[in-house]
Amino acid sequence: xxVYVFHGTLSVTNISVSQWHAHEMLYGxxxxxxxxxxxxxVKNWTGIATIHGKPLIALFMLWCAARVMFLFGTLxxxxxxxxxxxxxxxxxxxxxxPIIKAKQWLQFAVVGKVTLLWVGNLVFYLGCYGVLTSGMxxxxxxxxxxxxxxxxxxxxxxxxxxIERGVETKVLLKQYKWLDLSIMLLFxxxxxxxxxxQIPTLTALFACSLFALNGFRLLNxxxxxxxxxxxxxxxxxxxxxxxxxxxxxxxxxxxFQAQYSGSSILALHLFTIGGIGLMTxxxxxRVSLGxxxxxxxxxxxxxxxxxxxxxxxxxxxxxxPMLTTQFYIGWVLTAAILWIWxxxxxxxIYAPILLKPRADGALG
Length: 364
Description:
InterPro entries: NnrS (IPR010266). By secondary structure, the protein is mainly alpha-helical.
């Protein structure tokens, strides 16, 4: 993000700086968060240890190598691609082994999405070399939807769970299996249509239907007590920003246009900043406390400001330009600075926590 904001140059054949920015935020940052979360989650789901120690360091080094080598442009692009794709394969195998051993076959729905993300990354690099026409565009659009799919899948499990146990009053949120199934089937149909079939009318139908059904589910997850807990309202707002993304996605496919001619990019940023960005920051803030033996009900007060910074970022980057194009560059730069500041706050607060042994003395 810093390189992109301060107009860094990137000399890579067939890749614009914007495409590099999108790739690194999705397949770089996004995949790192997915790896950290799922390696921990799969261990909890199966009761079988996932990789740790030297294998985990090796996975991390592959990820780092890909990020650094990509900065050197075309010269090191083959090595960056190799490291990036090896990282993905290593992660998939590391997730699949304990699931297979525990015979929890339903968990392969999550592993399947990670595998599709690996395929998307491969498509991106093939697009870099001109092997696949528009490969980079398909890879970026596909990754955004796949990350949203992961959030819908995992969020269905954890968001109501966190709310019920995180508010001061006793609450039992309504859940409907037919609703969960309908949302996932609609999302699958939207993904197939956007990537393969590409009929705008179907995109509008699926996306607007998702907005309605997912909105109904989110209303059933609501309790006023969440506004007292930053680790809860941040998750809930993020879920609604994703839902708003479905609405704008559908309206654009139906032919409605905002003032800004690049309005499709603005809707995309509702998904990426508001959905992926805020959701991952909030999850990392909570999980980092819980998995280090600390009280998840007592995060730093600064995290509330960090979450608010990301919300302000998505408003300036995605919503304000839909209403006016005046000072557009200023809105974008301010949004980027707010994003960087919010994540810097997280690093300052949580680095000491993550570098120390668990507070309860357990392994980890």
